[in-house]
Structures are given as structure tokens and as C-alpha cells.
């Protein structure tokens, strides 16, 4: 049985302990870097949260197997990101190797997928434009609330803002996104009426 790990322990010590087989230290490292790795995959690959979580698991699995090769324990985070980049590249290669399903009878395959892909890419570009046009504080509040699943109070503490301010920023950001997504008056009135 390993001794309890204090809260204010150094990264160097945790990595050395994990390398020596201390499961509590390995768990603490996982907890410390899980969210960062998840955000890395979400940001770099533009994938769903479930896929990002799977890739984080793959990253840590590879890291634990190779931990004995890490020479400088203080470089653990950079080393972990390098493994994550390799996992991301592997994931991209797997996706490229997958062949889209082909129709058994080409005459019955009436759907043309290229306009759907094109419109999806255009929609994503439009959303990114709206995202970066938004004031930084609104963006931060929205991101922490939806992507990090923080409560409004937690966001307020993290950003040193009042809870009412955070609520207002999130509300304004949602309105801007809604108005941008449904740019025609008819679409906007349909959304507002729901």
C-alpha cells in the first residue's frame, strides 16, 4: 500500500512515483491532464467528445507503457502532448483508410453526398467566424459553461466575474449565435417561436 499523496505535490515527484508503480500517483497525473488532453483533441481534430475521450484513453495507455523511457520527469507534459499528437495522427490515418460504403446497385444510389459535405463545412466556417467575432469574455463564459460543463457560479469564480455577469454574457452569446445561424427573418422567427 502506498502512502497518501499530499495535495501540493510536485509534478516531478508524481511522475517518478508513477514510474515506480504508484497507482495513486498515476491516477493523480491522469486527473491533472485529462481535461487538457480532451481539449487538445477537440481543438485539433474537431471531433465529438466521445471520440476525444477515447483518444485520451489511448494517449494515457501509451504513456503508461512508455513511462520508463521518460528521462526528464519535468518534461512529462510536453512528452504527453507528443504522444497525443501521435495518437491524433494515427486517428487521422485510420479515418483516411476507411472507405465510404458503396451502393450495391449504383442506379439506386440517388443521394449525392457532396452538397451535404460542402454545406456542413460552410456551416462550420460560419460558426467559427461568429465565435471569433464574439467578445472574449462572452466566448470564455460560453466555452467554460458548455465545453467544461461548469456551472455559472464556477465560471464566475474561474473568470473573477459576478454570477449575474456570467449569466448575461452566456445569454448574449447564445442570442448572437442563434441570430447568426438563422440569418433569415423567417428562420429566426421560427426558432424564437419554439
UniProtKB/TrEMBL annotation:
Domain RNA polymerase sigma-70 region: start-end pairs: 41-98
Keyword Isomerase: no
Gene Ontology terms for molecular function: DNA binding; sigma factor activity
Example GO biological process: DNA-templated transcription initiation
Domain RNA polymerase sigma factor 70 region 4 type span(s) in chain numbering: 133-177
Keywords, comma-separated and alphabetical: DNA-binding, Sigma factor, Transcription, Transcription regulation
Coiled-coil features, chain-numbered ranges: none
UniProt signal peptide: none
InterPro entries given in the database record: RNA_pol_sigma-70-like, RNA_pol_sigma-70_dom, RNA_pol_sigma70_r2, RNA_pol_sigma70_r4_t2, RNA_pol_sigma_r2, RNA_pol_sigma_r3/r4-like, WH-like_DNA-bd_sf
Superkingdom as given in the UniProt entry: Bacteria
SUPFAM superfamilies reported in the protein's UniProt record: Sigma2 domain of RNA polymerase sigma factors, Sigma3 and sigma4 domains of RNA polymerase sigma factors
Pfam families per UniProt: Sigma70_r2, Sigma70_r4_2
Family indicated by similarity: Belongs to the sigma-70 factor family. ECF subfamily.
Family matches, as PANTHER family: RNA POLYMERASE ECF-TYPE SIGMA FACTO (PTHR43133), RNA POLYMERASE SIGMA FACTOR HI_1459-RELATED (PTHR43133:SF8)
Protein's name according to its UniProt entry: RNA polymerase sigma factor
Organism: Dictyobacter vulcani
